[in-house]
Protein 1
Amino acid sequence: MSTDEMSHYWYTIVNPNAGEGKGKKDWYRIADLFKKRSIPITVKFTEKKNQAIEFAREAVIKGYRKIIAVGGDGTLHEVINGIFTQGECSPRQVSVGMIPVGTGNDWGKMFSIPLIYEGAVDVIKENKLVLHDIGIIKYHDGDKQEKRYFINIAGLGYEALVVKKTNRQKEKGRSSQAIYLLNLLSSLVMFRNTKTEIVIDDKPYSGKIFSINIGNGRYCGGGMRQTPEALPDDGLLDITVIREMGRIEILKSLKILYDGTILSHPKIDGFRAKNIRVQSESLLYAEADGESLGHTPVEVSIIPGAVNVVYGEKII
């Protein structure tokens, strides 16, 4: 296929394990919808974790400039990391679409991407684009510093512990919103508030913290709204810091994690910034887009208007 022909095709990366196997089970139905709407696609199925990074990188190097993630937020996360770790072109020259098939599908909520496949494919067909900011999280794995890109939300502390437990269960074939909620509650038993030094755009902030969430997006963990006012194209990270809380107080406050009023709590602080650095007395683990990473020290920054995404409805 020539480069000119590739420019018309959507390189479609399918995670067959997404949504407890829905990626595989529903693919032929999704493929038929693309065919009926005359959307040309080239298809690649992942077989293991992080393979979508490799596939997206290779697709851009070959000349594709339109990529669809068929899966959950983790599949989209990998596609973004593939796009941002190739040297063939600026990521701004690439467009990314999504067909949500995962268990959480948090990123798509913000852009009104339907969970009904017909609607999601119609969004691809309409091809409305917005330049989306992308976060960079630098973290440590032992003594080695690593880096990941993220499109939605990164978290440290309690949230990352819940994600880590949930991802272990996913690897064993157990994945559902009920399991995430169970881990949300059971992790309270083992988690300890951690003495932390934070620098937000060169302004220091310190104390014992429960969790930190850093978002381009508004939803995480299957509908939680921990950065409820984040905008994906304002060139800023929304940062929510939950300070020291006891287990009973956390349980009483669970409702505000979901209803968008989290920043009204007296022990929760909100910021907007371009950079945040975090060091902690004991290790705080990190996650990004629901993918478990390493630990503190951590630095998060933003690339404004970094990549085109296909959206249904744009939030204001």
Protein 2
Amino acid sequence: MIGTEKILEVKDLTVHFYTYAGVVKAIEKVSFDVYKGETFALVGETGCGKSVTARALTQLIESPGRIVEGEVYYHRDGETIDLLKLGEEEIREYRGKEIAYIFQDPQSSLDPLYSIGYQVSEALFVHKMVKSIKEGVKRAVDILRTVLMPDPEKRVSNYPHELSGGMKQRVTIGIGIANNPRILIADEPTTALDVTVQAQILNLIKEMKERYGATVLLITHDMGVVADMADRVAVMYAGKIVELADVFTIFKKPIHPYTRGLLKAVPNPLVKIERLEAIPGTVPSLINPPSGCRFNPRCNQATEICRSKVPELEEVEDGHFVACHG
């Protein structure tokens, strides 16, 4: 059940990567709120800053990246914590326990040298949910059963290379939910999975959300997944949020030209379309992004003000925010 209680407030989050080629302005002044019990989706093309935003929430930005500015307020039992002001030891108390991740590539997020049971139990042991790894492995069987892993008693002894892609993704979900997190960040959880397994994984995330009462931050480029999973949606382009609204408004009354372009590029099985519309041009370099609105070189409605002035994210109607001069 979605409430009106904010569980996460992100304000002016800015992350840069300092490379030899120049400063990559990965995300610039990203702001949004997440409410307790909802599924909030960040959607956009590859490279728009979705994953960087999600990682920055718990300071998971590695060199040469740096969180330049911003606040991330986490609300818990009447207490407000600015996650970006915590030290490394302090943030670990929240990361993986109260705010957990399902990463997009289980092949790289699972360690090939350790058994599945060990990796699930480690998530429990680190946060003192069990007294030993051995006890954690016993708990891991129940966790794997919860995520519908076939024959979990046997799978705890397997290594990642012995599992299929769908099974490995179930393990990463198991690690994510092991400590009953309040916020579950699912970063492209169905990437590289076939369509049937994708549906199973998405249904599993829905079920886990209902069972544990978690809030889900879903990162995807697939508008079909957004329609199926999300309550509210933030559309990102070139490191900025360009539109934010509930999922029905995004699909029924999109305002930003980029949002409309994304939706026109999605096949509709109920309508006969000879040819899908593509968004012209390419994603701009984030080392030297376009002046003004970053979408203006690809926008057929762009005017002089779009090329000179950065549009602010403004509320055009209740709960519907758009960054556009049009």
Protein 3
Amino acid sequence: MIEILSIIFFFYVLVKVYISVMQIGYVAKAKEMPPVLMRPSGWIKSASYLISSERLKIIETLVEYILFIFWLSWGMRWIDTLTWNMSPILQAVIAVNLFLIVNYIVELPFTIYRTFVTNERYKFNHTTPELFIKDQIKGGVLTLIFASLLSAAVASIMIHVPLWWFFSFVLIFGVIVLLNLLYPTLIAPLFNTFTPLQDEVLNEKIKELLEKSGFKSEGVYVVDASKRDARLNAYFGGLGKSKRVVLFDTLLNKLTDNELLAVLSHELGHFKHHDIYKNIAMIGTILFIGFYLFGHLPTSLFMEIGVRETPAMFMLLFLLLIPVFLFIFMPLISLVSRQNEYAADAYAVELHGNREDLISALKKLVDENKSFPLSHKLTIFFYYSHPPVIERLKALGDKSVMNKSQGDDAMKGECHL
């Protein structure tokens, strides 16, 4: 069994590296083509940024494989021996936290390099070392608190409940829904400052838009995203009464009011089509399958690894293999998400009443965020939660891209809204 898991993880790593290599080669060639949707300087810059990011991703994937070998061949036995005389619940808490801490230490250099080297080189980074350290401490403390509570609860369920995998799934899924409720009002403010939108004219236009779509919100807020990053974004956060409209301060500085309203109309399309609930249901289904499989792991696997069949070791195996499991479903998740984006664009045109504002906003987001508008089809297939931006513009009837061809099946790119 351990050989099968090792082979599966090896192919997972191989596929990820292959996708990155193909993406690098594709973008390197596209970099020499005439610019699309961008000025020449931005075209070169965004292509170089994407290539640098993919190269770093390859190294991270290889390190991920080394970590897998470490945990499976030695690390799990080390933790099992270290916690040998502890109660099953305490062992689970210590084991999960040690696993997270070791992985965090290994991944931290990549986070630092991405923030202060790659993003700094391409003028995206606004994070200071002091802010970075504060973020890491806050994020780390929150992660360990949640991990401790959840691992203790799951261990207790495993000890006392025969159908433990099902009730563990119910617990974890419930926490995911709860976090969606709490994130906008309790968690996000720990990292950013949210202030009510001060532009009364724009605020009134947004409220009219919300009322027109039937969206009841806690309010419209501006987040100080520019203190960390120069890129633009907007989103609707929360569920139920905690829903709020969040605008990046960078977005307000770059888009006109009408373009901003078009972007918000797109987001309201997700609300109107109940996409957040569909996504939660899809993730819930995938998690259910995952918990079922992990709940039926053979005893022989633990014997092969050389550890006891305890709640702690079940959890470590789950954490170790869940990236592979989720990766298998990534094409499906991405496909559904891309279809939702097309539908949200169509609703935005219907609600806002002017497709040119959304077209203009998409083009500005590509340019300002330096989102290289071409990508290899495998990258799109696995990773793109949003359709290629040129395909979105074509669907919106933008005549400037309707008949363009750059020598490939389609000009592929991604731009988040």
Protein 4
Amino acid sequence: MRPTSLRNAADCDCLTPGPLTGAELSTLEQGDLMNRFTRLALLSAGLLIAPMQSALGQVSKEVDDFLAVAGSLGNNAPVYEGTTFEKGMQAYELLRWKDARGFFETAARGGNGDAQFYLGMMYLNGEGGEESAQEALKWLRQAARKKVPEAENLLGVMFADGNGVTADPAEAARWFRLAADRGYGIGQQNLGSMYLDGTGVPKDEREAARLYRLAAEQNIPSAQSLLAELYMAGVGVAKDMVQAAKWLLLAGNAGDEEAFFFLESLLEDGTLSEEQVEKASAEADAWLEARDE
């Protein structure tokens, strides 16, 4: 689907809270705006890494697809094929948490970094067995030693939230930076939020915008929506409503349905003109075409 109009929102799950309204943007103090960005980004990271993200950081199927396949199996045990880790992924995608955890634990103990990440994440979320932040921390650290960026990012989230560890913004930023430097989009987004708020790192709005853009260029809808809000507010970038509309269109196209609704509200209240949206739509189409080449 190309973002050619405001009326073509896809039937998709929205993974992030809705953006600020035009009125909120005009009345919020800048400090409140920065804090909101940080909360949104960290929340988005938690949603995007669980429960469906593959070891390569790609969403392999929609939740409904998982449930449909799992339901079709009834009480019949599925046949898993491939390596132990691959069997774990098959079980995970079928929402058979106990099977998945068993396979991942075997592969993790054998030194598979991706399995260590998944096992740590499952302990953190309590999937397939007990919930244990300490076990999660142990396995995520092992995965991080193998330079698995998803594990580095999740460790950053744990230190940012104080989940199983003493909250430490500087340590959170360190882990986010490791993931970001490996090109991991959610790590780039989270590090950007730290710079935006001056949490764990010196406040630097331009660096925040740069990092959000790197993540947005990977077609991550939460980063695209956040970058749009920076353009609307003129934070870290020159205020540009056409660019704001472009990134909201792209976020909606990538799965953030709220971005379409927000954009339509901006058009209805006069914050955006039809001419601006038409120009933004053309730029969004060009961006998608270039990405597909």
